[in-house]
């Protein structure tokens, strides 16, 4: 019982974070059919925003709110700086500009802050633990689970029940037709980047909460995780991204529990082998998603 | 209402539309006929704002709307049903209709009322309101895209080959509906391969050939022209 509970909480909290990361990446991919390589830096922006507000004495929730807003602004800035100027050109052009924007943000952090880890203010509750059915559980894992449930529900509501959400789903399958119904292209794209930034900001807080510090390269792992989760789940489906996130967390956690100390160093090699197996079995990912053609 | 002058559309080096002029007065139904590749769809998509004009002008109610973007054309009162019959396959019938009313989404009561009216007009869609549009038959999808276009309460409706690939019974139903829409005072530009059907509802018609207007006149004149089939098949 204790073991099961512990395992479940580990999978769900890691999976919740992974699912949110993947969703933030896939919402932009779905509409533009382009991977935003500067996505990880949105998490970095949230982290450094927290660090810079560290000594301000503001309540933690206010700082967290500001950090998320900074990530949203950085997300929208990605659109204006890296995507919009070259969107009509080639895929390669956008790949390069989004890499460039990512490097630019990282180097700004290196230059103006520091290459070394910087502490991030965390509320006490992040370091407390509770015992559930004998399993000693960090409260932050429970917070992550709750945050993931709330955000996934909010996201589902936004996409299914609001006109903006329906328009975004439509634009993801056929952008030109959506425009011919009067849906403004720029509004949809900006909204996608803003939602992406919002998810990255919240995930950033939870993610950095595990370590307590931020470094310029903090975004690399989340970007990789989000990318792998969406590839497993199917690049075209938001449900797929969420499922992919939880599946990846299940694989990682199972390996954590079963691999011996020496083998644990090679955990990522095991994870990637499994991912390759899944892709050999289903090259398009687990969920097909709507048929969608052209890039916009 | 709608006035197109000397319109040119190019795809790279291909000149698909070469100096087309046409007009549609308020409440008029104008047909554009022509063989495959004559440039009918290119003309229509250019009016809709989905293709940029390489030359010429498009005026709506006297206002210049040449190369306006598609969303602006909808706001100006032009709704388009492309020949690719683009329903959003994973969205439900209701959601598809909701998107049709995007430009007037703040008028909730009016939108709900229009949606009810469309579903009453198309009972087959009403039965399938909660179903993903991708699961509808070809004829039902055609009805849905027309209903969806009407949700923006357009002044001008651009219809591209609504009969394409449909069974004769369904084609009759669709044309019946086009007649009803015309009676409501809507201005319609109808692109068709099915010349006989199109001329039976049209006031005037243009025949396109190799990107140019080869003939024009009232529906009766065009229908009576002995060289119609020659013009038509001459592609
Ligand atoms: N995306 C495109 N790229 C290049 N050429 C195109 C494209 N779309 C159309 N064309 C060319 O433009 C010309 C006109 O095409 P258009 O689709 O307007 O004809 P149409 O009259 O609608 O024909 P149909 O009756 O077959 O629908 C054709 O020669 C076609 O090959
Ligand atoms: Mg055509």
List keywords for this structure.
heterodimer, A: 296 residues, mainly alpha, ABC transporter involved in vitamin B12 uptake, BtuC, 4 strands, B: 235 residues, alpha/beta, Rossmann fold, six-stranded mixed β-sheet, four-stranded antiparallel β-sheet, 10 helices, 10 strands, binds adenosine-5'-triphosphate, binds magnesium ion, nucleotide-binding (chain B), branched-chain amino acid transmembrane transporter activity (chain B), BCAA_Transport_ATP-bd_LivF (chain B), ABC_transporter-like_CS (chain B), ABC transporter ATP-binding protein (chain B)
The SSE order of chain B reads EEEHEEHEHHHHEHEHEEHH
Structural class of chain A: mainly alpha
Q: What share of residues are in beta strands of chain A?
A: under 5%
- What helical percentage do the residues of chain B reach? 25-40%
Report how far the terminal alpha carbons of chain B are from each other. 29 Å
Query: What small-molecule ligands were found?
Result: adenosine-5'-triphosphate, magnesium ion
Order of strands, widest sheet of chain B: 6-7-8-3-9-10
Largest sheet of chain B: 6 strands, mixed
Mean pLDDT of chain B: 92
Main location (chain A): membrane
Transmembrane segments (chain A): 12-32, 60-81, 93-113, 142-159, 180-208, 223-251, 263-281
Protein name (chain A): Branched-chain amino acid ABC transporter permease
GO molecular function, one term (chain A): L-valine transmembrane transporter activity
């Amino acid at each position: 019982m204790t073991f099961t509970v512990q395992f479940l909480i580990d999978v769900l909290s890691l999976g919740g974070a992974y699912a949110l990361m993947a969703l933030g990446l896939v919402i932009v991919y779905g509409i533009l059919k382009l991977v935003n390589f500067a996505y990880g830096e949105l998490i970095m922006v949230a982290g450094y925003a927290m660090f810079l507000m560290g000594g301000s004495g503001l309540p933690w929730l206010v700082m967290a709110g500001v950090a998320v807003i900074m990530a949203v602004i950085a997300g929208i800035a990605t659109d204006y700086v890296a995507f919009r100027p070259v969107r009509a050109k080639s895929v390669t052009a956008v790949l390069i500009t989004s890499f460039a924007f990512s490097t630019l943000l990282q180097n700004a952090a290196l230059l103006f802050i520091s290459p070394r880890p910087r502490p991030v203010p965390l509320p006490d509750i992040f370091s407390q633990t509770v015992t559930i059915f004998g399993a000693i559980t960090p409260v932050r894992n429970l917070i992550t689970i709750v945050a993931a449930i709330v955000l996934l529900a909010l996201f589902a509501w936004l996409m299914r029940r609001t006109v903006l959400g329906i328009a975004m789903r439509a634009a993801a399958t056929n952008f030109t037709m959506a425009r011919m119904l009067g849906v403004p292209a720029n509004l949809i794209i900006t909204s996608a980047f803003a939602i992406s930034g919002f998810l990255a900001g919240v995930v950033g807080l939870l993610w950095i909460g595990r370590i307590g510090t931020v470094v310029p390269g903090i975004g690399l792992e989340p970007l990789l995780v989000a990318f792998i989760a969406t590839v497993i789940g199917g690049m075209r489906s938001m449900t797929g991204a969420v499922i992919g996130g939880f599946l990846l967390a299940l694989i990682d956690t199972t390996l954590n529990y079963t691999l011996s100390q020496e083998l644990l160093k090679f955990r990522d090699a095991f994870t990637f082998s499994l991912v390759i197996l899944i892709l050999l079995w289903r090259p398009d990912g687990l969920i097909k998603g709507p048929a969608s053609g052209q890039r916009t | 209402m709608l006035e197109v002058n000397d319109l040119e559309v190019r795809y790279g080096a291909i000149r698909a539309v070469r100096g087309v002029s046409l007009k549609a007065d308020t409440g008029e139904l104008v047909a554009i006929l022509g063989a495959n590749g004559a440039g009918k769809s290119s003309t229509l998509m250019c009016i809709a704002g989905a293709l940029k004009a390489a030359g010429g002008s498009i005026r709506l109610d006297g206002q210049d709307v040449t190369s306006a973007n598609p969303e602006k054309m909808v706001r100006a009162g032009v709704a388009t049903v492309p020949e690719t019959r683009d329903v959003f396959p994973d969205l439900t019938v209701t959601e598809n209709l909701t998107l049709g009313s995007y430009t007037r989404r703040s008028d909730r009561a009016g939108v709900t009322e229009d949606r009810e009216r469309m579903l009453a007009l198309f009972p087959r869609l009403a039965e399938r309101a909660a179903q993903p549009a991708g699961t509808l038959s070809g004829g039902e999808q055609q009805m849905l895209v027309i209903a969806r276009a009407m949700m923006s309460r357009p002044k001008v409706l651009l219809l591209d080959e609504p009969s394409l690939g449909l069974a004769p019974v369904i084609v009759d139903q669709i044309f019946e509906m086009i007649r009803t829409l015309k009676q409501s005072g809507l201005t319609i530009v109808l692109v068709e391969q099915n010349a006989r059907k199109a001329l039976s509802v049209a006031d005037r018609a243009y025949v396109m050939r190799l990107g140019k207007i080869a003939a024009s006149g009232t529906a009766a004149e065009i229908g009576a022209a002995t060289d119609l089939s020659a013009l038509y098949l001459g592609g």
